[in-house]
Design goal:
single chain; 727 residues; alpha/beta; Leucine-rich repeat, LRR (right-handed beta-alpha superhelix); 24-stranded mixed beta sheet; 13-stranded parallel beta sheet; 4 helices
């Protein structure tokens, strides 16, 4: 036993040491639990999402909701993502969590400010406060004292601050995301001290100034997102030092100048988006240095040309968008040498020339089977089309409008994916393309501004049931409008203007449910723009942004009356029937079209009065009823009172009232004047009756009063004549 005594004493000593060490740990854990419970008490409605937070079960702190612990039992991670808390951070005791490494407060509904005490989280590695737009104020400068911080996300907050120079203190930072927090000022040069940074995102702020040259020091950068700011100046050449760069998005800024060759020096580069800036000059060559590039967006700049080797080694390129530049180039220079995966090609609004066929008569797009979008509109391309276009199995969108293409459209088949076909403003001829009959999924068809002729086929609504935009204007179509065209159920815009159509306007529009509801359509985020005549001007209608419902049958030879069925299309926003031979009256139910903004019935043979229901057209901003045979008083009040231009009613000899001459001398008085005339006639009648009564009254009594005297005189005369005769 004597030998066991020292051993027992040693074990007892170790136990005492463990207990003495555990005592402060338990105290720390207890303080963490107490801090969370106290903060919970300041939050409204927290019992639902934080029900387990209670001092009664503080011994099981690590099993509380949204809490994770380390091996010692201290809170290591507090993740309150999407907990819908209603309160502030004012009573959150940050100093109670010296072991906290991850704090996530995204989508919590918190308001107020971010307290400076957040700098007491000395072990913090990741801080994420996102999607809390009611958190306002400034970024606490104490955050920039957190030396261990590797991830800082402050996203979609209501902050109003500058990006401070102290950002350079966070030298261990690997991800910095300060997007949509209303930052102002410039990007400080100290950002170049973040040499471990891999992700930089400052999207959607009000940053100004230039991109600092020091960005080239951040050689581990993989992602740069600076879009939707007001950055200016040229791109720093030091970007070429970023050899690990994969994605650089700089769109929607005011950057300018030339982009120097070799600036994209990363063999890992996948996406480049510099759209909506002021870049100019030749676009640099060999952008696909590493053969990894999949997306390049350079639209809405001032580039003037492309090098022949721009798309060299672009074996993985999928999206190419150079919309709205000043590029003068032959079409073949805009195509990658490797047609495998090129899915989107957009070069509209440039000065491309050439044809779609090679010198050997082969189609440039023959082997590009993955193409889903082709936009070559508003260029100087010419020649004809080949059948290869219609054999592209993935093609969804094709816009070749506003070029100089000619000949008959070679349309023998149609792939199921085709949804948008825009061939407007070219020189295509021939009858309506019969191959369109097989395009069952087509939603937009624009053949306007060509030389198509013949009749409009009756099979349109049956073969193209999903169509919601149909434009055949400015062609040579003749004959009547087939009544089958009224079987469309999703049609929103019907434009048959400026043709040679005859006969009546069809009447039964009950199937046009698409003109009663708003339907939005888009193509994978690509802006789908169509030209229509809207409010008497040529209007670019963006299918992605706005919903439109309208009918334009102007400039034809349509006759008979305007059908009442048109007044059932309650969603109509514009209606144009001008320049026809329509007669009869304007339908009384025209006031049902309460959303109507533009109405043009001019240059017809309409007669009668303007219906009183016009006063219900409270959205009307453009009206033209001129050059008809309308008569009567112009209805007054509501929105019509704002239409002060008399020309909208001109050349209707029988019309009067504001803004034309008054109706006082009109041969066709309105209802009030008619009532006043009737009242005057009744008054005169009463006066004549009263005068007749008074005259008869006095005549009667006058006869009675003077009767005796007259009788006496007559009797005396008789006696006198008798006496004379006796003598």
């Amino acid at each position: 036993m004597k030998h066991l005594y020292p051993v027992g004493l040693f074990m007892l000593s170790c136990t005492c040491l463990q207990l003495s060490a555990a005592a402060p740990a338990r105290v720390g854990i207890s303080r963490e639990a107490e801090a969370l419970v106290n903060w919970k008490a300041s939050l409204a409605g927290a019992n639902k999402s934080l029900r387990s937070w209670s001092l009664a079960n503080s011994t099981s702190l690590c099993r509380w909701w949204h809490v994770s612990c380390d091996l010692a039992g201290h809170i290591r991670k507090l993740d309150l993502d999407d907990t819908s808390l209603n309160g502030t951070l004012d009573r959150f005791d940050f100093s109670a969590f010296p072991h906290l490494k991850i704090l996530i407060l995204s989508q919590t509904g918190l308001h107020g400010t971010i307290p400076a005490g957040i700098g007491n989280l000395t072990s913090l590695v990741e801080l994420d406060i996102s999607s809390c737009p009611y958190l306002r104020g400034v970024i606490p400068r104490s955050i920039f004292q957190l030396k261990h911080l590797a991830v800082l996300r402050l996203i979609d907050l209501g902050l109003d601050d500058m990006l401070p120079e102290e950002i350079g203190n966070l030298t261990n930072l690997q991800e910095l995301d300060l997007s949509m927090v209303t930052l102002t000022g410039s990007i400080p040069q100290t950002i170049g001290m973040l040499v471990k940074l891999q992700v930089l995102s400052l999207v959607g702020n009000n940053l100004t100034g230039s991109i600092p040259m020091e960005i080239g020091n951040m050689t581990k950068l993989q992602t740069i997102y600076l879009q939707h700011n007001n950055l200016e100046g040229q791109l720093p050449g030091t970007i070429s030092h970023l050899v690990k760069l994969q994605d650089i998005i700089l769109s929607e800024n005011q950057l300018l100048g030339h982009i120097f060759p070799g600036i994209w020096n990363s063999s890992l580069l996948r996406s480049v988006d510099i759209a909506n800036n002021n870049f100019s000059g030749m676009f640099p060559s060999s952008i696909c240095v590493g053969g990894a590039l999949t997306w390049i967006g350079a639209g809405y700049n001032g580039f003037t040309g492309l090098h022949h080797q721009t798309f060299q080694n672009c074996t993985t390129l999928q999206i190419v968008d150079f919309t709205a530049n000043n590029i003068v180039a032959e079409l073949r220079d805009c195509l990658s040498e490797h047609p495998g995966d090129l899915t989107t090609m957009a070069f509209s609004q440039n000065q491309l020339y050439g044809t779609l066929l090679t010198d050997q008569g082969e189609d440039f797009f023959r082997n590009r089977t993955y193409l889903s979008l082709i936009d070559l509109s508003n260029n100087a391309l010419q020649g004809g089309l080949s059948n290869c276009f219609w054999n592209l199995p993935d093609l969804e969108f094709m816009d070749l409008s506003s070029n100089s293409f000619s000949s008959v459209v070679p349309f023998k088949t149609c792939q199921d994916n085709l949804k948008y076909l825009i061939l407007a403003n070219n020189h295509f001829r021939g009858t309506f393309p019969l191959g369109l009959k097989k395009c069952k999924n087509l939603t937009t068809l624009d053949l306007g501004g060509n030389n198509f002729s013949g009749t409009i086929p009756s099979w349109l609504s049956m073969s193209l049931p999903k169509l919601n935009f149909l434009r055949l204007s400015s062609n040579i179509f003749d004959g009547i409008i087939p009544h089958q065209i009224l079987q469309f159920r999703q049609l929103q815009v019907l434009d048959l203007s400026k043709n040679k159509l005859t006969g009546p306007v069809p009447d039964d529009f009950t199937n046009f449910t698409g003109m009663a509801d708003s339907i939005y359509q888009y193509h994978n985020g690509y802006r789908v723009q169509i030209h229509i005549v809207w409010k008497n001007v040529d209007y670019v209608y963006d299918l992605m942004i706005a919903a439109m419902a309208g009918i334009d049958l102007s400039g034809n030879s349509l006759s008979q009356e305007i059908p009442d069925g048109l007044t059932t299309l309650l969603g109509l926003r514009y209606l144009n029937l001008s320049g026809n031979y329509l007669s009869g009256r304007i339908p009384k139910g025209i006031g049902n079209l309460v959303l109507l903004e533009s109405l043009d019935l001019s240059r017809n043979q309409l007669s009668g009065e303007i219906p009183p229901s016009f006063l219900s057209l409270k959205s009307m901003s453009t009206l033209n009823l001129s050059n008809n045979e309308l008569s009567g008083r112009i209805p007054m009040g509501n929105q019509l009172q704002t239409l002060v231009d008399p020309s909208i009613y001109s050349n209707n000899p029988g019309l009067c009232g504001f803004p034309l001459n008054d109706c006082m001398n009109s041969s066709t008085p309105d209802q009030n004047e008619t009532g006043q005339a009737e009242d005057r006639e009744a008054l005169w009648l009463y006066c004549f009756v009263a005068a007749g009564f008074i005259f008869g009254f006095w005549l009667y009594w006058g006869m009675i009063l003077f009767r005796s005297e007259v009788t006496k005189k007559i009797y005396s005369c008789i006696l006198f004549f008798q006496a004379k005769s006796n003598v």
